[in-house]
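Postdoc handover notes: sequence design on the structure in folder B. Input tokens:
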């Protein structure tokens, strides 16, 4: 099995597992797979003739093994989907309730996704971030810095950062730091927004 591809090795292991389960009578419950009428007719015809009865038994054994293989693969697929769904929920909660602002911003400057902290820092509601130009969410005087950040990323800079002020003058007077990195595929930017803490005097 050493020279076989990983996919072929996996298929062979499933086949061995299916054969062992049939032998031990520990096959999983059928996933609803049924033998078609044409196959049953063929099996009956083969089994009725002494010259081909052994072929019928081999075919029936192969069909049973294949059915158990399908059931095992179906069970593994369901387990994988459940695991992925749980992992996605876990990371979604980490993202949504993180204490720093996370944004996904298209290279055209529009917000594609954002969490609660980002909305709070930028003075808007969580449902109002998507579709907004990032530059429009900061103070007017800070917009050139955001435009420069996006231009740098579009020109291939892997990371870039700038300091901006909130668009609402009544919010925390401390400036915000925007750190951006190109996402894989360079089709968007991953942006972290955090409040700058003033240096002690």
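Designed sequence:
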């Amino acid at each position: 099995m050493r020279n076989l591809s990983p996919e072929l090795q996996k298929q062979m292991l499933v086949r061995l597992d299916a054969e062992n389960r049939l032998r031990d009578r520990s096959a999983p419950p059928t996933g609803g797979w049924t033998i078609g009428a044409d196959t049953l007719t063929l099996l009956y015809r083969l089994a009725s003739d002494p010259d081909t009865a052994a072929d019928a038994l081999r075919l029936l054994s192969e069909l049973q093994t294949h059915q158990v293989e399908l059931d095992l693969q179906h069970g593994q697929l369901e387990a994988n989907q459940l695991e992925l769904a749980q992992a996605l929920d876990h990371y979604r909660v980490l993202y949504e309730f993180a204490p720093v602002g996370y944004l996904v911003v298209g290279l055209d400057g529009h917000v594609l996704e954002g969490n609660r902290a980002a909305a709070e820092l930028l003075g808007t509601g969580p449902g109002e971030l998507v579709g907004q130009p990032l530059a429009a969410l900061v103070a007017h005087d800070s917009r050139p810095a955001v435009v420069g950040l996006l231009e740098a990323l579009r020109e291939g800079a892997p990371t870039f950062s700038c300091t901006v002020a909130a668009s609402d003058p009544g919010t925390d007077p401390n400036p915000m730091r925007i750190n951006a990195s190109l996402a894989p595929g360079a089709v968007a930017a991953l942006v972290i927004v955090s409040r700058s803490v003033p240096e002690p005097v």
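Context for whoever picks this up: Residues 53-96 form the longest helix (44 residues). Don't rerun without checking with the PI first.
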